[in-house]
């Protein structure tokens, strides 16, 4: 269902209005409290700049970390306000609390084009409980609502869902709109052939995605630690590789379903083995039907990379979620890096390449190929749920287009 977007609101409709914008500023900090990656802050700039340019009073709402409903001094948004101020080239006023007298006073003092950042909404337990009175107090600060926090759209919280009951219009920001356009578009109306590359260590965390993708995709390529559960289900020896014993039947079922639907379901043909889980472990390459005892698979092998590249060559849309191996260890990053390079090449040939959040994003950024992809999703859990065909509460709550 198409949602109304910020693009539909003119300067006349926004000038002088107080606009509550839910953003995803959950950025990583180092031990000194400095931001190590400001991607999420930069991702919100198009929406913020559009609003300030149209003369709106921009009130930003965000969560940070997991303070569990109480004030945690280490989880204040102070460093975020400082970085945002640098990026915008104007001062950003931060409140001491997201509701109450301080927030009300700072919002009341705003001029057109000003930006206020409300303190961490998760300092209140009512946020995650989506408690009505809290949502009402938050909404009372504003006239209009914009949700630009795709990364939190799978949560029905006060700042993502509750406030929409009190604010109209409630629309999607530019980042949210782009996420829905690419991810929903790839699922609902993809250019075919459509391939999904699903990685990660556990079948259990990707069951929903694999099952949903079987109905949508022409090809599914599986990598990462979860491949060993499939091999063991086929009766192969996997050494001391990670296996989810309680998911063996499910692995068989998924392969059978793919065959019945005529979906190409590809597993690696060879793997890079290690004698222990460490960056400096001894390693060797083995065919998947010849994994020796005492060794564990930590990456897909060079032959698998070729097989996967051949399968992807004619694809018009590719969704990638989850790394091919333990890419954090350089010795076991080749498979993941090769897939990243392959997708970058495909993008250049007109294929729509979508990196679906989480570790795949980190892998693509580590390989320096982020700007070569069609779309990099900012939401881990939200991307997964959307690909699983679930309704995201933060999206459902917005006005229809």
What topology does this entry show?
Layout lengths: L10 H4 L3 E5 L16 H5 L1 H9 L3 E5 L16 H11 L3 E3 L6 H8 L6 E3 L7 H5 L2 H8 L4 E4 L22 E3 L1 H15 L5 E5 L8 H8 L4 E4 L4 H7 L14 H14 L2 E3 L3 E5 L8 E5 L8 E5 L1 H11 L4 E5 L12 H15 L3 E4 L3 H8 L8 E2 L3 H8 L5 H4 L5
Parallel strand pairs: 1-2, 1-5, 2-4, 3-4, 5-6, 7-8, 7-13, 8-9, 13-14, 14-15
Antiparallel strand pairs: 10-11, 10-12
Structure description:
- The protein has 401 residues and is an alpha/beta fold.
- It has 2 domains: 6-177, 3-Layer(aba) Sandwich (Rossmann fold); 190-387, Phosphoglycerate kinase, N-terminal domain (Rossmann fold, 3-Layer(aba) Sandwich), CATH 3.40.50.1260.
- The chain is built from 16 helices and 15 strands.
- It has helices spanning 11-14, 39-43, 45-53, 78-88, 101-108, 125-129, 132-139, 174-188, 207-214, 227-233, 248-261, 302-312, 334-348, 359-366, 380-387, 393-396, and strands at residues 18-22, 57-61, 92-94, 115-117, 144-147, 170-172, 194-198, 219-222, 264-266, 270-274, 283-287, 296-300, 317-321, 352-355, 375-376.
- The chain has a 6-stranded parallel β-sheet with strand order 3-4-2-1-5-6. Strands 9-8-7-13-14-15 form a 6-stranded parallel β-sheet, sandwiched between helices. A 3-stranded antiparallel β-sheet has the order 11-10-12.
- Helix 10 packs across helix 11 (248-261).
- The chain is elongated, with a radius of gyration of 23 Å.
- The protein starts with 10 loop residues before the first helix and ends in a 5-residue tail after the last helix.
- The mean pLDDT is 96.
């Amino acid at each position: 269902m198409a949602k109304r977007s910020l693009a539909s609101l003119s300067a006349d409709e926004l000038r002088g209005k107080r606009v509550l914008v839910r953003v995803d500023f959950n950025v990583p900090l180092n031990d000194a409290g400095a931001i190590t990656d400001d991607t999420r802050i930069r991702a919100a700039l198009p929406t913020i700049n559009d609003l300030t340019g149209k003369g709106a009073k921009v009130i930003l709402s965000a969560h940070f970390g997991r303070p569990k409903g109480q004030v945690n001094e280490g989880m204040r948004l102070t460093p975020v306000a400082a970085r945002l101020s640098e990026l915008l080239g104007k001062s950003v006023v931060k409140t001491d609390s997201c509701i109450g007298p301080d927030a009300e006073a700072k919002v009341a003092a705003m001029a057109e084009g000003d930006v206020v950042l409300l303190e961490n909404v998760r300092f209140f337990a009512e946020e995650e409980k989506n408690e009505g009175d809290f949502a009402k107090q938050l909404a009372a600060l504003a006239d209009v609502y914009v949700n630009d926090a795709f990364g939190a759209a799978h949560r029905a919280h006060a700042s993502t869902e509750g406030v929409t009951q009190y604010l109209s219009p409630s629309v999607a920001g530019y980042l949210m709109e782009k996420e829905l356009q690419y991810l929903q578009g790839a699922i609902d109306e993809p250019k075919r052939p459509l391939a999904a590359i699903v990685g990660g260590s556990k079948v259990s965390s990707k069951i929903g995605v694999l099952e949903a993708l079987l109905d949508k995709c022409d090809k599914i390529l599986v990598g990462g630690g979860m491949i060993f559960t499939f091999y063991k289900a086929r009766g192969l020896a996997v050494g001391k590789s990670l296996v989810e014993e309680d998911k063996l039947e499910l692995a068989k079922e998924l392969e059978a379903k793919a065959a019945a639907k005529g979906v190409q379901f590809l597993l690696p043909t060879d793997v890079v083995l290690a004698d222990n889980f460490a960056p400096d472990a001894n390693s060797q390459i083995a065919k998947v039907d010849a994994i020796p005892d005492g060794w564990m698979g930590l990456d897909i092998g060079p032959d698998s990379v070729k097989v996967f590249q051949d399968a992807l060559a004619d694809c018009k849309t590719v969704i990638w979620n989850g790394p091919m191996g333990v890419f954090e260890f350089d010795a076991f990053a080749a498979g993941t890096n090769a897939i990243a390079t392959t997708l970058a090449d495909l993008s250049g040939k007109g294929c729509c390449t979508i990196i679906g959040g989480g570790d795949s994003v980190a892998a693509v950024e580590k390989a320096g190929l982020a700007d070569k992809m069609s779309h990099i999703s900012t939401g881990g859990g939200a991307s997964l749920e959307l690909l699983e065909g679930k309704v995201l509460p933060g999206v459902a709550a917005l006005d229809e287009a």
